[in-house]
Amino acid sequence: MGRYPFLTCAKRFLSARGQTYAEATAKELQRRYRRMEKDLKMLVENGKATSANPEKMSAEDVLAYINLLKSRGLKEKAIGHNLTALKNLLDYMGNPSVQRFKAKYTFAVPKSRSPRLPAMDDRGFQTILRKASSIDSLDWKRLRAYTLVVMALCTGMRNKELRLCQVCDLHIDEMKVRAEHVKGEGTYGQAREIAIRPEARETLVKYLRARNKLVAEQSPGNLALFPALRGKGDGYLSSNGLENMKRLVESETGIKFDLRMCRRTYGQRAIDEGVSTEAVSQLLGHSTTKTTENYYCRMRQDTAIREAHNVWQVPKSYPDAKTPKIESGRWEPGYA
Fold first, then answer.
1. 72 and 129 assigned to the same domain
2. Triad 211, 173, 199: Cα angle to 5°
3. Segment 5-38, tens digit of pLDDT
4. 170 φ, ψ to 5°?
5. Mean pLDDT computed over 292-318
6. Which domain holds residue 140?
7. Residues 6+ positions from 191 with CB-CB distance below 8 Å
8. Which site among 8, 27, 130, 131 is 20 to 30 Å from 51 CA-CA?
């Protein structure tokens, strides 16, 4: 297998996965495996591991690697990402050492549960919508950037789904869009249709007119909803292209966000407005509502209380109800 068995196996594994991983994810895994290979070689050279070959690594080698990451002060979540990447590679090579490590060294297994990160607040949401509606249709660079972010906020689509979305996937008359290039494409992922929030309509109509005119002039036949309009390539934006457009909106609005926050915002606003968790989970492309509630959005406490009161027909207040302890300002026997 040559001088670098780990990287050879990693390249074979990533090649076999093909388009299962989004472009950005595949690049991150390449970097992660290169770092992993250096760490494992160092452990072998220092006598703390017996092999850096994915086919021959033992549970003890995995333990040594995890201990190395912990000694550097890495957070449990980061260690967990590395362990998952290593497990996927070793599983592909037919080596169950990560499972054995987890069973034998339970104390060393990283224990982390990612907290559900916040959605964008209403001020940020409305600011981006207002800026998008004010952009001149001839200002292509800014119009495309803002429309992309509005689409992210109003559909909850993933980066890859937005980047590879075709203009024919958008049905503005029905306010829905079809996501074809989904997470897990070619394996477990399934294409789905997504309801578009009504706030996006004005910006989308303006954008489509500008897009269709520009494509006809500069890149006839380009099918991308957000075309790159360059003389070479497939006509679709790169992951870096999406990031640059997001940064443009950030710099002009002063609102810091990523496209995953837009995805959480779509889900949380829908739930707050009364859309069921099951429906939101379906729109986001989750296999279960557990993923939706744990990592993206769930009913807020005040909404839950209001819903319960509505079912029970509880009035907003009881004008004749008094709390003697509070009113008198002193302790009244029998109230606690």
1. no
2. 75
3. 999 999 999 999 877 777 778 889 999 999 999 9
4. -95, 125
5. 84
6. 122-258
7. 178, 179, 180, 182
8. 27
Longest dimension (CA), the chain: 85
Cite the DSSP H helix spans in 135-276: 140-155, 159-163, 201-218, 239-253, 259-272
- Asked if 279 and 151 touch (Cβ cutoff 8 Å), the reply is no
CA-based nearest residue to 87, from 112, 65, 111: 65
CATH at residue 239: 1.10.443.10
Strand arrangement of the beta sheet that strand 170-171 belongs to: 170-171, 176-179, 192-195
240 lies in the same domain as 143: yes
Q: Which is nearest to 68 in space by CA: 90, 52, 92, 53?
A: 52
pTM summary value: 0.71
CA 113 to chain centre: 16
Question: Tokens 């870096």 label which residue?
Answer: 240
Q: Which residues lie below 8 Å from residue 278, measured CB to CB, with a gap of 6+?
A: 289
3-state secondary structure (DSSP) of residue 299: coil
